[in-house]
Amino acid sequence: MGEKNWAGNYEYTAERIARPRSVDELRDLVVASSSVRALGSRHSFNDLADTPGLLVSTADLPGSARIDEASRTVTVGGGVRYGDLARELQDAGWALHNLASLPHISVAGAIATATHGSGDRNGNLATAVAGLRILGGSGELVDLRRGDDGFDGAVVGLGALGVVTEVTLDIRPTYDARQRLFAGLPWEAVLSRFDEVTSAAYSVSLFTTWQEETVSLAWLKELAGAETPIEDDFFGARALTEARHMIPTMDVRNTTEQLGVVGPWSERLAHFRFAFTPSNGEEIQSEYLVPRARAVEAIEAVSGLAPVIAPLLQVSEIRTVAADDLWLSSAYGTDVVGLHFTWFRDQAGVEAVLPQLEAALLPLGARPHWGKLYVDRDRLVPSLYPRLADFAALASRFDPAARFRNPFLTRLLG
Ligand SMILES: Cc1cc2nc3c(=O)[nH]c(=O)nc-3n(C[C@H](O)[C@H](O)[C@H](O)COP(=O)(O)OP(=O)(O)OC[C@H]3O[C@@H](n4cnc5c(N)ncnc54)[C@H](O)[C@@H]3O)c2cc1C
């Protein structure tokens, strides 16, 4: 078929991609296929979305947003991209609690993999889900609301239950934020004052190649009117007076406005502008979400591997995510710290170093990001999810004929 994911590092093995324009058309496609998967905006880096049979793109399904002011929720089509939703909400005076680095990803695809931004008190994007409408394997539409039996298992669903046609998300009144970048954060501050560093702003990201004397960038997103605005010195790092991309060779115009300029959440919470298409085909990503209590150990372990990973690495990002109750969330039951790796697109090289990285991180309880590249050679990942068996049972209930099963799910669920 020759169709690839966004990064171009994975070619789907599916026979074909269909682009249904209505839920009825989608239902006909699903019930006629013994092997089928939903395909969002193709931003995953592995075979999670793939199927030997039929891929159904969600891009052309109905998507318009319906805001319910009384319940403070918005309901949108699963294929809608966060950037489009954010604009619509902002125009109507509403907001989401957080965004990922890239606003181009689809809502249902992002929540299916527990995609997250940063912030000690911010749950991942899936924690904003108040309801789902799922087209299951027998063609029935099922509505699940927060609190319903199985809801906590269905949200981070890996596409295993069916196609999410609609998502209802919590919203809040719109707010403003500003971004400032600080250069040269001493490692000593990160290691000995980790909680102070990451709680200093609404969202804190630390960028490093693990080889510099200091953490090259601290990227802070503060809410406008924060009670304790941050001065120009951030634990010894200095505030930048020119905008910067986290990868020095990349075009800074791709990034959302920095330098402390206050603007709406929709234009500040993602690192990248929706209006620009970030370069693609240049990178592969991996990420491991470490229980917060083990974060400093994990950071020290990765630092120790710097000579091994540096030749393949463009940049790493360290972020924090609040705990939640979603069974397959990487933050299930514990606050976590994400150790993210943007690699050069050298698949074989990256796959060769991941076992070493995973040997250091998985025993600390680190959960790989579902949508990014990982190898799990020793099959430790299933043991990191206490509700995995319940999830498998839930998926079978929604999809008794296992149409949505694919090799990725079989590796995970057995
Ligand atoms: C440049 C870039 C930046 C990124 N930044 C971040 C980040 O800041 N934080 C982070 O956590 N992750 C990040 N990611 C990872 C990305 O958010 C996830 O891989 C996410 O799952 C991509 O969503 P998608 O719509 O492209 O999903 P796809 O890759 O199309 O699919 C992923 C999974 O979702 C399922 N799915 C998609 N749509 C539906 C649906 N309607 N119903 C049921 N299942 C569905 C698919 O079946 C598949 O299992 C980034 C990726 C890229 C390429």
Strand content: 25-35%
- Mean pLDDT across all residues, rounded? 96
Question: Which small-molecule species are bound to the chains here?
Answer: flavin-adenine dinucleotide
Query: By helix and strand content, what is the structural category?
Result: alpha+beta
End-to-end separation in angstroms reads 28 Å
Number of helices: 11
Q: What best-fitting shape do the alpha-carbon axes yield?
A: globular
Fraction of helical residues: 10-25%
CATH T-level topology of the largest domain: Alpha-Beta Plaits
Can you walk me through this structure?
The longest helix is centred in the last third of the chain and has 15 residues, at 347-361. The chain folds into 2 domains: 66-174, Uridine Diphospho-n-acetylenolpyruvylglucosamine Reductase, domain 3 (2-Layer Sandwich); 177-368, 2-Layer Sandwich (Alpha-Beta Plaits), CATH 3.30.70.2520. 50% of the residues are buried. The strands form 4 sheets. Strands 11, 12, 13, 14, 15, 16, 17, 18, 19 and 20 form a 10-stranded antiparallel sheet that branches. The protein has a 5-stranded antiparallel sheet with strand order 4-5-9-7-8. The model has no long low-confidence stretch (mean pLDDT 96). The protein is globular, with a radius of gyration of 20 Å. It has helices at residues 23-31, 82-91, 107-112, 151-154, 187-192, 194-198, 295-304, 306-309, 347-361, 388-398, 407-413; strands at 16-18, 36-39, 54-57, 66-68, 73-77, 94-95, 129-135, 141-145, 163-170, 172-173, 176-186, 203-208, 214-223, 233-234, 237-239, 263-264, 283-291, 313-321, 336-344, 367-368. 21% of the residues lie in helices and 26% in strands. The protein is of the alpha+beta class and 414 residues long. Bound molecules: flavin-adenine dinucleotide. The site of flavin-adenine dinucleotide has 34 residues, from strand 2, helix 3 and strand 9. The site of flavin-adenine dinucleotide (FAD) has 34 residues, from strand 2, helix 3 and strand 9.
